[in-house]
Design goal:
CATH architecture: Alpha-Beta Barrel
Structural class: alpha/beta
Distance between the termini: 65 Å
Largest sheet: 8 strands, mixed
CATH class: Alpha Beta
Number of domains: 1
CATH superfamily: Glycoside hydrolase/deacetylase
Order of helices and strands: EEEEHEHHEHEHEEHEHEHH
Number of strands: 11
Radius of gyration: 18 Å
Strand content: 15-25%
Length: about 300
């Protein structure tokens, strides 16, 4: 059974794409210096045949709603031929950037469910994800199967992941969470609901963790999508063949008449102060919490 899913709102949004987040009890407020990410250049799409974004939906995550029909069947908001693109386990050197470049070429957006450890190890990459207008969610601290953990250990994995990703991004992140191995539990579902964090499963699993050519991966994803006619697609931005497949997949989606829906959150996800402190020993090469400032305010070229 899932936690209460009341008060969910799925709204069509007309604003620009940005990572958002959710309200949480006893949460640590982000410093004002880091409350917003630098915006990228607002230019029109240079590709006249781009896949683009058909619509953006804003999610009220109050009570922890669940998305993805494989596990959570309450909110089937996608229309025929609509897809949501999602990536787990990153960021990673080279592969995440290649995927971002492919998405940019097609002027479209995705959700990235990042691991806390990975984000802290490669903060410049996860910041690039957010700055390019994609939604950044979380995927635990170190990709543990939460069903095999004690209640406290599971909470620690969730919260350290949130603190780690928020710290690495240096700005707002979304109250969107995907379980490692898609394995939830009643205790953790209730906990996420208490934190107003939405849970994500999938409609179409790419199985891109299996060895295959980029061409075969595209073929398999399209076949699975055709069976449902729409859906949330689960991929991994740490997989080299997924990165190589992305231009072909986006082209195939366009040719197949599919449209991308971008999901973002109504509210920002706040971290818990105790976990912000807990991860400080894992932070390398980042300013102390609260000291991040825009580059332009620190370094300036003078005449």
């Amino acid at each position: 059974m899932r936690a209460p899913l009341s008060m969910l709102l799925v709204l069509v949004a007309t604003a620009a794409f940005a990572g958002d987040s959710s309200k949480a009890p006893q949460a640590a407020e982000a410093p004002s210096e880091t409350s917003a990410l630098p915006e990228g250049p607002k230019t029109a799409c240079a590709n006249p045949d781009a896949l683009g974004v058909a619509r953006t939906v804003e999610i009220d995550t109050t009570g922890g709603p669940g998305f993805g029909m494989e596990h959570y069947k309450a909110y089937d908001f996608l229309q025929d031929k609509e897809v949501v693109l999602t990536f787990d386990d990153g960021p990673q050197v080279n592969t995440t950037k290649a995927i971002l470049d492919a998405l940019d070429e097609q002027c479209t957006k995705a959700i990235f469910f990042s691991l806390g450890k990975m984000a802290l190890g490669l903060p410049e990459i996860i910041r690039d994800v957010a700055q390019r207008g994609h939604t950044v969610g979380t995927h635990t601290w170190s990709h543990q199967d939460l069903r095999k953990k004690s209640d406290q250990e599971a909470k620690d994995e969730i919260e350290k992941g949130i603190s780690g990703v928020r710290r690495a991004v240096g700005g707002p992140i979304s109250p969107f969470f995907r379980y490692p191995y898609l394995r939830d539990s009643q205790v953790t579902l209730a906990y996420l609901a208490s934190r107003n964090i939405a849970m994500f499963s999938t409609d179409t699993d790419s199985f891109d963790f299996k060895r295959q050519t980029p061409e075969k991966l595209v073929e398999n994803i399209m076949k699975r999508l055709e069976k449902r006619g729409k859906g949330m697609v689960l991929m991994h931005d740490i997989q080299p063949h997924t990165a190589k497949a992305m231009p072909g997949l986006l082209t195939a989606l366009k040719a197949g008449g599919y449209k991308v829906v971008h999901m973002r959150a109504k509210d920002e996800l706040k971290t818990l102060a105790e976990y912000d402190k807990l991860i400080e020993k894992d932070v390398k090469g980042l300013p102390a919490a609260g000291s991040e400032r825009p580059l332009s305010s620190v370094v300036r070229t003078v005449p």
